[in-house]
Write a structure and sequence with these properties.
The protein is α/β, with parallel strands linked by helices. The chain is built from nine helices and 14 strands. Strand 1, helix 4 and strand 2 form a beta-alpha-beta unit. The protein starts with 8 loop residues before the first helix and ends with a strand.
């Protein structure tokens, strides 16, 4: 993903300061933290999450054999909302990010970052996320939807109870992107959230997903990721960890600290998952010595600071968290976005695109020898990309296999002024466009 670009060292310091001193603040002083679910829960009628409610723990025990079944694949679409080019991400960056998140969910992680006493709880969730192959109209897609918007940033209201402001990024008429059918796709929105120095991410589950679905007020299922925080890629808030964290919410998981109503009641609240210890709100710590913020009468353990649902290392999923998500996705929610491995990996939809449908754009055109060739239709067959003069003489030839939307940058600043041809050839089809070079 992108590294620090627009944000300054001072802005990064502000984030560290906010996270480090968040514990001592009252709710009235609460800064806008990187997971907005805290505030979504607190703005509503207090939820009774106390640890003496064991219904979901008992249900968790009944799901222990569920994941003897196959790995399940979840159909996802990523909507990227951008006002300026620096707010956009390339398809390759998104694909790489999804790959990194899948490693977390399949336990392809560095377990040495987990305290030895807690490593026994780390597990493979048997869940993978698969970028969509077709859009709601049945057209081929790579599952990445770039959406230009007039909105430079989207608000996250800390007082609005109608959800209009919080959900603006999900509403086309307000400059956002309307979700694809939430029964068929897990929607992910990436955009600039809140004001300067505010980095807001949050996940909304299906209402039937336990335990979180019964506690989150009405909202559009899916997750929102702040473009600014992803761009920073801070060491203590890894991009793939933030992504995994919010996906955990979208699949029904609570924070490991149980989302108490006030800072004074952490140890009285639970996430309703048996194998995650009671803990307080700890931020920006991967303490190798272990922190035990809540002493339990039985089976007391140190805080699991490596858990994806904490605010720390964000790398591991426990067995019972995995069981809870697997049960939610396979039995308690819409089945439309649950795919098999063959459906996830299928290239049929892409391969069957007619050659005549191959599309590309040249911009800027005319230009001074520096321009882009944007291939907007995905193909799995190799494409020959050539530059020719008007006499048909081939000057440059490249072979590419874009698979997804692909932008090829050309630097012909040394070439003579004139009109040239860009030719794309795939199988037996040839498509040609003119490009004007004026140095």
């Amino acid at each position: 993903m992108k590294k620090v670009t627009r944000k300054t060292f001072f802005e990064i310091t502000i984030i560290v300061f906010m996270c480090t001193f968040f514990v001592g603040l009252t709710s009235a002083q609460m800064p806008q933290t990187f997971c907005g679910l805290d505030e979504i829960l607190r703005r509503n009628t207090p939820i009774n999450n106390e640890i003496d409610q064991g219904t979901l723990k008992d249900l968790g025990k009944e799901t222990s054999n569920l994941r003897n079944g196959p790995v399940i694949y979840i159909n996802i679409v990523v909507h990227i909302l951008y006002n300026t080019p620096d707010q956009d991400f390339t398809d390759e960056e998104i694909i790489d990010l999804v790959d990194e998140v899948n490693k977390i969910y399949r336990k392809d992680i560095d377990t040495t970052q987990i305290l030895p006493i807690l490593r026994q709880f780390a597990d493979d969730a048997k869940i993978q996320f698969c970028l969509a192959k077709t859009d709601p109209d049945g057209n081929p897609t790579n599952g990445i939807n770039h959406v230009g918007t007039d909105e430079y940033s989207f608000p996250f209201s800390f007082t609005d109870t109608t959800y209009l402001e919080t959900e603006q990024i999900k509403i086309d008429s307000l400059g956002g992107a309307t979700p694809w059918n939430t029964d068929m796709y897990l929607n992910i929105w990436i955009g600039t959230m809140g004001e300067e120095n505010e980095y807001i991410n949050y996940g909304v589950p299906q209402s039937t997903y336990l335990p979180l679905g019964e506690e989150v007020p009405i909202g559009i299922p899916g997750i929102v990721l702040d473009q600014g925080l992803l761009e920073l890629d801070l060491s203590f808030l890894p991009v793939e960890g933030i992504f995994a964290h919010e996906l955990g919410h979208a699949l029904g998981l609570k924070h490991t600290h149980g989302d108490p109503i006030s800072m004074e009641t952490f140890c009285d609240y639970d996430d309703k998952i048996d194998d995650t210890p009671l803990c307080g709100f700890i931020v920006n710590s991967c303490n190798s010595e272990g922190i035990n913020s809540c002493i339990e009468a039985e089976n007391d353990l140190v805080d699991n600071l490596s858990n994806i649902m904490s605010y720390n290392c964000l790398i591991m999923i426990t067995k019972m968290q995995a069981e809870r998500m697997y049960e939610n996705v396979t039995n308690l929610g819409p089945q439309g976005y649950v795919l098999t491995e063959s459906e996830c990996n299928s290239t049929t939809n892409i391969a069957e695109i007619g050659n005549e449908d191959l599309q590309f754009e040249i911009f800027p055109n005319p230009n001074q020898g520096n321009f882009n060739v944007l291939i907007t239709t995905p193909f799995y067959d190799p494409i020959q990309l050539s530059l020719l003069d008007m006499g048909g003489r081939e000057l440059i030839n490249k072979v590419i296999t874009p698979k997804f939307q692909h932008n090829e940058q050309w630097d012909l600043s040394e070439i003579s002024n004139g009109i040239y041809l860009i030719r794309l050839k795939i199988r037996d089809s040839i498509i040609t466009k003119k490009v004007v070079v004026c140095n």
